[in-house]
Amino acid sequence: MAKVIFSIQYEVIPAKRDEYLNIMRELKTLVSSNGLLSYSVYEKKNKTNSFEELYTFENDEAYEAFDDNQNERIDILMSKLSDLIKENSTKYTTMYEVLD
């Protein structure tokens, strides 16, 4: 089956950068799920405070089931993140592998 990549792009409020990085460190240790092959966070090279989270799933079923596997701490961290992100800067992308 084809892999699925889900990405979230956004800009963090500059004054909240340190708080964001601390939350992401903890979140990276908590994010796991059957079928989640990798989870990474990147900052754009020439745009400070512009980040992208990349989730790679082994197939569509794992991607669709991902939200069902969250724990309470992840929900709390995600809620905190929403206060650190600039309004109207979030973009979501879902890509399906065409050749495997």
- Bulk shape: globular
Helix content: 25-40%
Strand percent estimate: 25-35%
CATH topology descriptor: Alpha-Beta Plaits
Radius of gyration: 14 Å
- The helix count comes to 3
How many structural domains are formed by the residues?
1
How far the N terminus sits from the C terminus, by CA atoms, comes to: 8 Å
Number of E strands: 4
Strand order of the largest sheet: 2-3-1-4
The chain-level mean pLDDT equals: 92
Structural class per helix/strand content? alpha+beta
CATH arch. level architecture: 2-Layer Sandwich
Instruction: Give the CATH level 1 class.
Output: Alpha Beta
Task: Describe the protein in words.
The protein is an alpha+beta fold. It has a single domain (4-96), classed as 2-Layer Sandwich (Alpha-Beta Plaits). The protein has helices at residues 17-30, 60-65, 72-82; strands spanning 4-11, 36-43, 50-57, 91-96. A four-stranded antiparallel sheet has the order 2-3-1-4. A hairpin with a 6-residue loop joins strand 2 (36-43) and strand 3. Helix 1 packs antiparallel against helix 3. The protein starts with a strand and ends with a strand. The mean pLDDT is 92.
Q: What is the strand and helix layout of this fold?
A:
Blueprint: E1 4-11, H1 17-30, E2 36-43, E3 50-57, H2 60-65, H3 72-82, E4 91-96
Antiparallel strand pairs: 1-3, 1-4, 2-3
Helix pairs in contact: 1-3
Descriptive keywords:
100 residues, alpha+beta, 3 helices
